[in-house]
Write a structure and sequence with these properties.
Blueprint lengths: L15 E4 L9 E2 L2 H5 L8 E5 L2 E8 L1 H7 L6
Length: about 70
């Protein structure tokens, strides 16, 4: 796969996330092979969900979370 086909996009919606709790049941939560290879799930990781379909959940690695997301405190 060539990277020249990739374009940059900015999110226009709010993300819903919560902290991963070590030892929790992750049935139904998607974890990428790359994140697993990096040792996830681990403390500091987050669990994201689709605000329109709460059963659609995935792991967000701590590093990605810290570099790309910030809490809304309205």
């Amino acid at each position: 796969m060539t990277t020249d086909k990739f374009k940059k996009y900015r999110r226009t919606a709010v993300s819903e996330l919560r902290s991963y709790e070590p030892g929790e049941d992750l049935t139904g939560i998607s974890i990428s092979d790359v994140d697993r290879a990096e040792g996830s799930p681990k403390p500091g990781d987050m669990i994201g969900r689709n605000p329109k379909n709460h059963s659609d959940q995935w792991l967000v690695a701590e590093r990605y979370f810290k570099e790309n997301l910030e809490e809304i405190t309205e």
